[in-house]
Design a protein that fits this description.
Distance between the termini: 42 Å
Mean pLDDT: 97
Number of domains: 1
Strand content: 5-15%
Low-confidence stretches: none
Length: 296
């Protein structure tokens, strides 16, 4: 049974949802599609995820798979209103008019009438670094128009540190509802943790990209020991760890077995002492660029 929960850590089913600041709800675990660029494989994996019970699918302009993701959503047999679909604006498209054009292009590729959540992929784009924060704020004005026009149900950002969020919050009419950031086991960067805390304090849901650490954490002795204690896989512990940190995980894989495995994380709770042991590990480190370094 699906329910709207006050906290991500309270969710008991894959379809349980949390409310965004504007009242729109999103399921507590998403299915990521980054690097899933083969059309047939992407179509198959998203279909498999929907069949396994995922109702939150995450794509982006930069993933080059919006067509396949949209086709899987349309052909899944799951009512459109039960699926939360996210896409993102890539850096080269920042700016007011460019954002509006690019969104329309994404919507055509998806073959859908609306998007549930639209995100700015990076706050500082390489092509517009000298124009920050003006470029970001112009982009955000376009996001607000898309929201006002009913083309998106919610708007948000990715990879924003506290300074970037303050920039948007200081000028916006509609505040971001989501901040999707790099957040995973073995990554204790102070800027990132501050961004997560600041987001939550301002009613912004934190989503975690790379919750499985892109495979780099597997075999870690602490992670392995905790997984063994609960009779779970290391991947399942990583996804559960995110939820218990009030962060919405977006695990990705194309393996049908692992798609189901990553969702099977609601029959155990990691004890406080085991969370503390996991939190003490910092050996994985940052996987992507620092948000203040515009590499794209």
């Amino acid at each position: 049974m699906r329910a709207v929960m006050s906290h991500l850590s309270d969710c008991a089913n894959l379809g349980d949802e949390v409310a965004l600041a504007n009242g729109v709800t999103i399921p507590c675990v998403g299915f990521g599609t980054y690097k899933n660029t083969d059309p047939a494989e992407c179509l198959s994996s998203v279909r498999e995820a929907l069949a396994a019970g995922y109702r939150h699918i995450d794509t982006a302009q930069f993933y080059f798979n919006e067509e396949s993701v949209g086709a899987a959503v349309r052909d899944s047999g799951v009512p459109r209103g039960e699926i939360s679909l996210t896409t993102k604006l890539w850096n080269t498209s920042q700016g007011y008019d460019s954002t509006l054009r690019t969104f329309d292009d994404s919507l055509k590729k998806l073959g859908l009438d609306y998007v549930d959540l639209y995100l700015v992929h990076w706050p500082v784009a390489k092509d517009f670094a000298a124009e920050y924060p003006r470029a970001l704020l112009n982009t955000w004005r376009a996001f607000e128009k898309l929201y006002a026009d009913g083309k998106v149900r919610a708007i948000g950002v990715c990879n924003c540190l506290k300074e970037h969020l303050n920039t948007v919050l200081g000028e916006c009419k509609v505040a971001p509802t989501v901040n999707q950031i790099e957040y995973h086991f073995g990554f204790a960067d102070s800027d990132q943790l501050e961004a997560a805390d600041f987001s939550r304090a301002n009613g912004i849901v934190v989503e975690a990209w790379a919750p499985l650490c892109r495979g780099r954490a597997f075999g870690n002795p602490v992670l392995k020991a905790v997984a063994g204690k609960y009779g779970k896989t290391e991947a399942q512990v990583l996804v559960r760890w995110c939820l218990q940190h009030e962060t919405l995980p977006l695990p990705k894989t194309v393996s049908p077995a692992r798609i189901r495995e990553n969702a099977d994380i609601f029959d155990f709770v990691i004890a406080d002492e085991d969370m503390a042991a996991l939190d003490a590990v910092s050996s994985v480190g940052r996987l992507g660029p620092h948000p203040t370094e515009p590499r794209f």
